[in-house]
Structure to design on (423 residues):
């Protein structure tokens, strides 16, 4: 572990904090997530930590993505945009941060998660009090959607709140020797938890149910985790079933989704216009968010058939552009939704990297199944990745690319450690 002074400590953690938690805040052209560049300045100042192995790992995987991108751009005659160049440079930066600070990251995440729940809880309460705003218990038109405080939507807040809730529940459910500072953490966690529950969204409820179920299955020998998981799953299910918007966006969408797929299948071979007339005649309706998700998967399916090796890093919008007009839509407004992020990172990764992307996703899922030992850090990382497989906001929002790299690099390091002990 490297030594750091107070200023470097602050700079490094400010960069991580901003990338993980402040990604929805934009001040004119400044996006606070870009402050992670500050973390690189700190790492560069610690020259003694560099070695050839770290350098090779840092450049190897982003270079593979770069080569993949360049090959596809040559084959399909893509125009290289500033967005592409910036995204690729930013990718190298994130890899650099993860690989060169890995030994310190677990402690760093604990620091910034603690800082976030304290700062967020205090600032939320102050803003709520002085703005005279009211909670809107709704899965769609929620408090964050109306106030744009830190997060622009309730679903964006849920991407962060679910991993934080899982992190602390797991942490406090372990055999834990409490210190005075821990009671402060518990106090602010309770405030944060109440804020999260009152600002629920379908993403929050479904995400909490699924991640808590996974944590429960993997920790059947821990009574505290069993009790907390059952309580959270029951509470989330109760809320989900008792709000119309939540029902329409979850279990209530199952029948309309099946009907839509059957309608498309039964009318295969007909023109889009003929299908639209038939749909209008049937007076077919489905929740727009659900249809956006289904459309995203259909774009991915069509793209994989024609471009099995993908369309290139951060190029999902090209597949969207190519196939969106070929897809039957109940609401044509769907065409404008999630053009760049694909509604979920499952479809974004699969579309952009093709079979390689599917392999990454399947390997991630397989690693979850066989994983046996967990720490609170693991729970946070896994929860954050899974949340963006439910509601994606791109690679560089919500800390996705950061935690994905951490997850896979940690698998690599754990395997190395296992081999050392075995030998």
């Amino acid at each position: 572990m490297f030594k750091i002074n107070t200023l470097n400590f602050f700079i490094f953690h400010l960069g991580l904090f901003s990338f993980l938690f402040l990604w929805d805040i934009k001040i004119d052209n400044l996006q606070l997530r870009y402050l992670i560049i500050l973390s690189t300045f700190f790492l560069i100042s610690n020259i003694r930590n560099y070695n050839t192995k770290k350098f090779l790992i840092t450049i190897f995987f982003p270079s593979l993505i770069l080569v993949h991108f360049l090959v596809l751009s040559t084959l399909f005659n893509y125009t290289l945009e500033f967005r592409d160049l910036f995204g690729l440079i930013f990718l190298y930066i994130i890899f650099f941060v993860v690989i060169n600070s890995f030994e310190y990251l677990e402690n760093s995440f604990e620091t910034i998660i603690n800082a976030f729940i304290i700062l967020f809880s205090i600032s939320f309460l102050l803003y709520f009090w002085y703005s005279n705003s009211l909670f809107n218990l709704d899965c769609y038109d929620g408090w964050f959607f109306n106030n744009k405080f830190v997060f622009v939507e309730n679903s964006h807040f849920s991407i962060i709140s679910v991993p934080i809730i899982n992190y602390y529940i797991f942490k406090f459910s372990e055999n834990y020797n409490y210190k005075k500072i821990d009671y402060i953490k518990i106090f602010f966690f309770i405030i944060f938890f109440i804020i999260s529950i009152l600002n629920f969204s379908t993403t929050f409820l479904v995400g909490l149910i699924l991640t808590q179920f996974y944590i429960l299955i993997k920790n059947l020998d821990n009574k505290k985790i069993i009790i907390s998981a059952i309580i959270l799953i029951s509470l989330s299910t109760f809320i989900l079933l008792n709000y119309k918007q939540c029902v329409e966006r979850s279990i209530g969408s199952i029948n309309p989704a099946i009907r839509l797929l059957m309608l498309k299948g039964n009318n295969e071979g007909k023109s889009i216009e003929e299908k639209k007339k038939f749909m209008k005649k049937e007076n077919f309706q489905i929740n727009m968010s659900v249809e956006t998700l289904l459309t995203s998967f259909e774009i991915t399916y069509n793209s994989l058939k024609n471009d099995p090796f993908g369309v290139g890093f951060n190029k999902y919008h090209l597949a969207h552009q190519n196939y969106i007009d070929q897809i039957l839509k109940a609401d044509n407004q769907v065409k404008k939704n999630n053009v760049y992020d694909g509604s979920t990172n499952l479809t974004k990764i699969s579309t952009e990297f093709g079979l390689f992307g599917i392999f990454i996703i399947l390997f991630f899922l397989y690693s979850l199944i066989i994983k046996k030992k967990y720490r609170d850090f693991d729970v946070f990382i896994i929860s954050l990745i899974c949340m963006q497989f439910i509601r994606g906001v791109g690679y560089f929002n919500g800390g996705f690319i950061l935690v994905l790299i951490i997850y896979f690099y940690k698998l690599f390091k754990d395997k190395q450690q296992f081999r050392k002990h075995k030998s």
Observations:
- The longest strand covers residues 26-27.
- The chain has a mean pLDDT of 89.
- Residues 6-249+339-422 form one domain.
- DSSP finds 17 helices and two strands in the chain.
